[in-house]
Amino acid sequence: MKNLNNLDKQYIWHPFTQMKDWLKDKQLIIEKGKGIYLYDDKGNEYIDGVSSLWVTVHGHQKKEIDQAIKKQLKKISHSTLLGLGNEPSAILAEKLIKIAPAGLKKVFYSDSGSTAVEIALKIAFQYQKLRGKKSKTKFITLENAYHGDTIGSVSVGGIDLFHELYKPMLFKSFKVPVDNILKLEQLLKAKHQTIAAMIVEPMVQAAAGMLIMPKGFLESARKLCKKYNVILICDEVAAGFGRTGKMFASENISPDIICVAKGITGGYLPLAATLTTEKIFDAFIGDKSKTFFHGHTYTGNPLSCAAAIANLDIFEKENTLEKLKAKIEFLREKLDKYKNLKQIKEIRQLGFMVGIELNSEKAGLGREVILEARKRGVIIRPLGNVIVLMPPLSISLKELQKLVKITFESIQAAMRM
Ligand SMILES: Cc1ncc(COP(=O)(O)O)c(C=O)c1O
């Protein structure tokens, strides 16, 4: 058999990766997954501590999702939503609307979190034009925001390391701090006539290092956006499908638009959706000029939608969110034990989203920690000097305990101080 490490290094350009480092080190090649475990091509077992980049929900090789995809394969793998409908996308759309925050009535499919955000931004922009508010063209975003890597989503991003370089390519947006609602109010008061929408990651800014929103900010933002006729977009790409302990982090504030992706298929296949209110949808009804001219080739892909239906059915059948409550508390207790370690600056937790901020600015330290964790059978990924834990919701208490223990052993091993 070919040496996969060599093949990978010869041909693949990895995302968010300095390839110089990648090429010089030996890399892990994942061959299979089962439950919360990943296995490399040498047969070594690892806990999937970040749900394969925040997507795996009920575990790998979950019987019901495997079967749903196989069943759909026997019917059709892909048919377009441009000019045609298909069975799984229609069934899924109804299910999504049933569990979505109140007021959301329509589903626009795409393939990734970034495209779901692009779509939300374009819908909000066009909506304002369609209702005659031609000057409402700008967006408000939060400091440290992350909404994806396409040009529109980077334009509403606020992480300098990722976004600064591209500034000449981007449209300008207004940035507000998340810890000062007054600044948002002042901005809206002064500029609302120029603002189409505000976009937020509800309750937790994940890629910024699991920064948790101050209490009340989201509710106040909701009220202010309504007052000033600004669309509120909640980007649930990271937080959606149970990660915060609720199905959606924005479920009690009725956003005008939400973006979902990642966990929608249980972590199986690429799929995303942008959900809007009937009011927004209705503004696009009319002659050809009112059409939303946007669509991706694999929009509403039947295999992905079949996986997503099975994923949502498991939430119901296994009572996933109810069972999660005790796991979240257990995780909190376990994390608490380590909060006073001298290696730790802060531990932030919202549901099953955890950021462990290291008490050091040393470059590359996060990577040293995750390499220590690998030696101990855990796969995690850092965001700078923040170690992220985001295990599959299906993890057991015993496995959770092991994940936390190994994570802190790895931190201590990498930071002998
Ligand atoms: C809040 C949020 N929005 C959007 C995205 C982009 O999603 P994708 O990587 O699927 O394009 C991410 C990815 O981490 C995210 O966390």
Automatic annotation (TrEMBL):
Q: Which GO terms describe its molecular function?
A: adenosylmethionine-8-amino-7-oxononanoate transaminase activity; pyridoxal phosphate binding
Its Gene Ontology biological processes? biotin biosynthetic process
Q: Please list the residues that bind pyridoxal 5'-phosphate.
A: G113, S114, D235, H296, T297
Q: Where in the cell is it found?
A: Cytoplasm
Q: Name one Pfam family in it.
A: Aminotran_3
A Gene Ontology term for the protein's cellular component: cytoplasm
Q: N6-(pyridoxal phosphate)lysine: which positions carry it?
A: K262
Q: Name the catalysed reactions.
A: (8S)-8-amino-7-oxononanoate + S-adenosyl-L-methionine = S-adenosyl-4-methylsulfanyl-2-oxobutanoate + (7R,8S)-7,8-diammoniononanoate
Q: Which positions does the site annotation Participates in the substrate recognition with KAPA and in a stacking interaction with the adenine ring of SAM cover? A: F16
The EC class name is transferase
Matching entries from NCBIfam families are given as:
bioA
PANTHER family linked: ADENOSYLMETHIONINE-8-AMINO-7-OXONONANOATE AMINOTRANSFERASE
Q: Report the protein name in the record.
A: Adenosylmethionine-8-amino-7-oxononanoate aminotransferase
| Organism for this UniProt entry | Candidatus Saganbacteria bacterium
